[in-house]
Every structure is written in structure tokens, then in C-alpha cells.
Amino acid sequence: MHRLTDLDAMRAVLSHWQACSEHVALVPTMGNLHVGHLALIKAARQRSDRVVASVFVNPTQFGPDEDFASYPRTLDDDIAALAEAGCDLVWMPSVKTMYPLAERFSIAVPAQLANQLCGEFRPGHFDGVASVVLRLFNQVRPRLAVFGEKDFQQLLVIRRLVADLALDIDIVGWPTQREADGLAMSSRNQYLTPEQRRVAPSLFQTLTQTAEGLAAGNDWKALEGQARDKLEEAGFRPQYLALRCAEDLGDPKPGRPQRLLAAAWLGKARLIDNIGLG
Q: Looking at the chain, which terminus has fewer C-beta neighbours within 10 angstroms, N or C?
């Protein structure tokens, strides 16, 4: 497995693969990998000849009071896990490589998609995500890229980016990987204390119960209030619980797929989750 930090060196490897007509898949990560990330690698391996994983903690998607400095960095363990999962190349750019200009170009995600849900509480976050992903796409030039559905709003941002800029990249959304008790796998789960870890699956359980209520024809507003009460009683500080159209995060449309999404603080961990409806 190649382990590269130099852009020219990576492009030389990619050029060789492309000359051999080998299709390349990209799995962007911020490192601190868990089983959920490795599932994305395996999904990419099934769909391509070569798999590139990027490991880059992107400063532009963190707000001034967020955990950029303390975000877990476990590069040696990540490299070992990626090799075991069948990755062909690990791309580990520096901040200078990723953002070479002092006055850099950036991407502005449409407000309707960027400023609601997580974007309401993390201003500029999705602009940072779109900017770094576009740079990774230009550096790696993959035929496809795999993203987890746990970050569902991010997945839609990337799909919109690819469509709007006419990028020849297939975006694959992969189902959320969960612990045995239902908790969505996340690098930030390690911020939970043992007691909070016991409580954390309540987020997924509450989403599931709310979805069942919707399927039974119960009123959304009543269900939303009940769900918030349950989360608060369990010790969460909910930010949002929302029912949206799964295609664009707009208002639900009759006969179209819907998504139930939530974000809540539990101690120092901000947990997000979502489930599909219909």
C-alpha cells in the first residue's frame, strides 16, 4: 500500500493506474478510523480496481469553538487498518498542500442546503466540506467516491456539488454502520463517558420510535415534541429533530422518500443520526 504526502508522487502512481485503464475510487476521511470507515473502503473495493483513502483533518470545516485541535489523530493505527481493509493508497496531504494560497478560492454551498439542520448550528461548515472535497476530487481524479449516510446532509451537499460542476464522479452513499446497540459509529463517540455511552443509543431508538409513529399515521408535531422530551429526559441537549424530503432536505413531498434527522449533545459529544422513511 502506498503512503504518500507529496502531490506529484501521488499523481505519478495515479497516472500509472490510469494508463492501465484501472478505475480509481476515493474514500475521504479525517482519520481516527473505525469499522464504519472500513466498510466504506470495502464498498469502494467492490466497485473499483484501486482504492484511495485520504486522511486529512480539514480546518476549514471546523468553527472557532469546535474541536479541530483536539480531534483524535491516530495515523499509525489508521494506516494499519486501511492496509488490512484492502486500500491501495493513503493520501495524507499537509494543510499547505491542500490550501497552497494565502487567499484561497472557496465554495459557497446553496443556502437552502447549507444553512439548515447541522448548518444552522455550524455556520460555514458545509462550505468547508465542499471546498476540501472538491480539492480531493481534483487531486485524485476518481471515477467514484464513497460517503457514509450517517452524515446525510453532507452526502447531499457532495451530490449537489458533483451535479452542479458537472464532475464525472459517481457518488455512492453507504448505509450507516452501527454498534450492536444501535449507536451510529462515529469518531466522536470516544468523547462519551461510560455512563453517556450507555445512554447514547437512545438517539437511534427515539428516531426509530418516531418513524414508527409516523408510519402509523400519527401527527408529526406531536411526535416531534414527544421525541424531544424523551431525549432531554435521557440527558441529551437536542439541537434539532426534523422530517425532510430525502432528495433535497426540503419539506416532505407526498410519494417521495423522506428522512428523519436529529442532532443532540450528550456531554462533550455532538451526536447526529438519521433514518430513511418510505
A: C
